[in-house]
Amino acid sequence: MKMKKILSICALSAFMCVNAMAEQINVLAAASLKYVLEDIKSEFLKTHKKDKIEVSYISSGKAYAQIQNGSPTHLFIAADMSYPQKLYDEKLAPSQPSNYAKGKLVLFSANADFKADSIEILKNDKIKHIAIPNPKLAPYGRAAEEFLKSQKLEKKLKSKLSVGDSIGQATSYVLQGASEIGFSALSMVIKDKTPHLTYTLIDESTYKPINQALIIPNHGKDSKLAKEFVEYILTSKVAEKIFQEYGYDKADK
Q1: For residue 22, what pLDDT is reported?
Q2: Is 60 annotated as a binding residue?
Q3: What percentage of the chain's residues is helix, strand, coil (to nearest 5)?
Q4: Which residue, 243, 238, 219, is CA-closest to 45?
Q5: Is residue 32 a known part of a binding site?
Q6: pLDDT in tens, 30-43
Q7: Residue 13 labelled as part of a binding site
Q8: Residue 123: predicted pLDDT
Q9: Which value, to the nearest 10 degrees, does the dihedral of the CA atoms of residues 36, 245, 150, 123 take?
Q10: Has residue 167 got a pLDDT over 60?
């Protein structure tokens, strides 16, 4: 009886120890990462079954502002380099950001009457609404704006632009039919099975490279799980393969 009691205590202690080691982190991630990051997270958690990673997908600009205002964020995965760099420059993160991938801009449609197989579709007078992520908050919106300027279309199309707070909102405008066409990230549409969805890649010479970076803010500096997840994103072959499947290139050095 005494031995059973000892064994029970040992088992309870072991259980408590395992659970004490389990960790949860809060991640703010760019909306353009919604699909690719969920796949990467799922693979990572296969070897971290007790741990939890809660991800909120919003525009990089809004994520940056939330961290500035004290959001308890362990990891920030942005759609550009500038917002993570600002956190470091403002001493809101202990280490420099790391580039993890380079994104690609697309023009797309989910409307059978307007195939987005060429940028020439932008000149179609029948199109009344063009979705675009907010250039002030979303890096892909900024890239779309740069592209329009390069084609001298910014002023001509200004009245048609439907601005979404994030790339997720802008993409939904097109998928739900509120806009005939729109700008998004390749990662958002490459695996989408929406009927009649078509897209064309925007020439990368018409916008600045979308080098995407991540950073651990001060709140996450002591988080073992955050550091391990970052290492997995940056170095694992599995993560690299998933990024490639969603159309990302390796980040410029």
Answers
A1: 87
A2: yes
A3: 45, 20, 35
A4: 238
A5: yes
A6: 999 999 999 999 99
A7: no
A8: 94
A9: -100
A10: yes
